[in-house]
Amino acid sequence: MKIKIYYGGRGLLDDPTLYVITRMENVLRELRVDVERFNIYEHKNEIATLPQTFKDADGIILAITVEWLGIGGYMQQFLDACWLYGDKNKIATTYMQPIVMSTTYGEREGEMTLCNAWEILGGSPCPGLCGYVDDLAMFKMNEDYNLIIEKKAESLYRTISQKVKNLPTSNQAVKQTVLRTQSLSLTPQESEQLSKYVSDDTYVKKQKEDIEELASMYKDLLGHREEKNIEPYKNDLLARFRPQGSLKVAYSFIIEGFKKPLYVGISGANIEVYYGENESVDVVIKIRQEMFDDILAGRLTFQRAFMTGSITAKGNFKILRLLDEIFLSEQLV
């Protein structure tokens, strides 16, 4: 029989949980059980891979110390890793005994949290051990307490040996009907490989750098594409321009999707078209790109687009109406 212990405390010398699990280890070894302990704080950079150590375990012990509130960060990260990367088929056949000691308050809540978490993961929790320890020295000297600890170790051994079954719980029903681990459907082998990648800081850093590089590359491509889209408007307006005597006007087209407005300045037979800000304009027009395409293609006029609310403008509206005369549509050019 193999039993693995996962300790989620900080490893302090006066931690009562360390005393309890050490005592249980001694009892289990006397029963010829192969016991292995994992101090999660020693594996904090590779917590994502710890669930893979369940492979050859018949049962596990989750041990924590409640120092002020809840089960603590390391154990919570470990349970998160079990949910994300653990082999659920293996967890379903693995017994778990919670050991929760408290130096303040909340040992019963901690034990319940571990049991609920293991049931939601699909495993079978065993009767655990929880208690409050005010003075560790007095706790060690109490033979009744030591006997209780030893009995709990023997109880775990019997539970695993006899393959004791538990009644179904609502936690398992919720998992089957509501909870979903992740959108990707991964095999246990793929989950194991993914957990190794997640725990590899060098790999994660490299992936982030690659993503940033790709994002920068696509931004450049989009920038080039936008520049290609800018030129046709300038060329189209220049090709469709028809002078209107000594008319002198200036328009600013704010085209949706472009960073800078399109400035069109007309002075008699001269026209200036460029993208940029210019405060000396007579009319400011807001227009969508596809609407501009329709107007230049002759499918729509500036006047009709304004009357139907397809474009908005502010400034001298008499000058706005001249646009259809200044720039002939493609069908009339």
For the CA atoms, what is the radius of gyration?
A: 36 Å
Main beta sheet: strand number and arrangement? Answer: 6 strands, parallel
Helix segment tally: 13
How far is the first residue's CA from the last residue's CA? 90 Å
The pLDDT mean sits at 86
Would you kindly provide a written description of the structure presented here, covering whatever features stand out?
The protein has 333 residues and is of the alpha/beta class. Helices cover 47% and strands 19% of the residues. The protein is built from 13 helices and 11 strands. The strands form 2 sheets. Strands 1, 2, 3, 4, 5 and 6 form a 6-stranded parallel sheet that branches. The longest helix is centred in the middle third of the chain and has 40 residues, at 201-240. It is rod-shaped. The mean pLDDT is 86.
